[in-house]
Amino acid sequence: MKTVNDVNFKGKKVLIRVDFNVPLNDNLEVTDTNRIEAAKPTIINVLEDDGCCVLMSHLGRPKDREEEFSLRNVVKTASEILGVQVKFVDDCIGETVENAVANLKSGEVLLLENLRYHKEEKEGDKTFAQNLAKLGNYYINDAFGTAHRAHASTAVIADFFPENKCFGLLLASEVDNLNKVLKDGKTPVTAIIGGAKVSSKITVIENILDKIDHLIIGGGMSFTFIKAQGGSIGASLVEEDKLDVALDILKKAKEKGVDVHLPVDAIIADSFSEMATTDVSVIDTIPEGWMGLDVGPKTNEIFASVIAQSQTILWNGPVGVFEMEPFAKGTIYLGNAIAEATKNGAFSLVGGGDSVAAVKKFNFTKKVSYVSTGGGAMLEMLEGKTLPGIKALTE
Ligand code: AMP
Q: What is the pTM of this model?
């Protein structure tokens, strides 16, 4: 994997695909700077080599050229974080942009307007990619959040830089950290898979079974497993058409010597609401009309003891409806167990789908070894897929 650390950018115009798809408030101010901070090391690396940076990104899902999706809104925050005044040009291809790039000096940063103002970006259009490619003599991809998309700026463009392309530091560290779990993970390796639905995690589970020793299953998806084994789950979330799949996963896990840990009890509620009446139930005798919305106290203990023995931990998906206070305890308990194991020397990675939201909400970010920045991209890596953005850099 060739990264920015292997290249001297002196005198180069470096086109960097970053992920500045950040949330904005009603005043169009950036409310979460994580993604800009995550791109900083790569940008600074180029500037310190005396190169200049042309940054390109998407922002949201514009239909037209709506002001709320303009990357101009990000310039102030990006300038503060990078410590240089970021220049801005109000398109991403064309003569004005080419002129702005031509005038760019070493140590300067130019941010282009939202790539998705052109529909050709998402279409992976070759001519559009070629027009972007004119804006630099070196290409770096550091946008992990969109690396699973074969868009013009994330994949197609790389063809125009057969030699002059490399991984940004963020993209490289996402790959490295996943490898620390799935390739070089110290045993015992434990994966915690939670979240709403089995259907969205089947491929992940099947792909990781060869690489793990323990599989903890929690969240809404666990009820499909409990029902498949003959349990009564009341009104809990279930995917009736995935009962066979659940049994098949359990069979495969057994064949591969993976210990599967399913919840033994649940916090049940009489409605899907913060105001619901709640109780604790054994997992396979949940009364009619009641639904399991969090793991129960005995399950917390069991999950925590498996985690305490683990050297490598992958966490994908909450074990309860953590967005509602009465059903957040299981996810917090689990987070604390992972934090404790990490403190004792285990390597822990959180990523894929929604789990990062839970980690941020309960302040676990600094207590785990690595938090992935890309939900969909991490999920696809966990599924064993080669991401188009990564493939394009290595071909
Ligand atoms: P995912 O995006 O697949 O990781 O799923 C995350 C979602 O699963 C969160 O919004 C949780 O509220 C939801 N979830 C977790 N546990 C349950 C449960 N027992 N019943 C319903 N939804 C759940």
A: 0.92
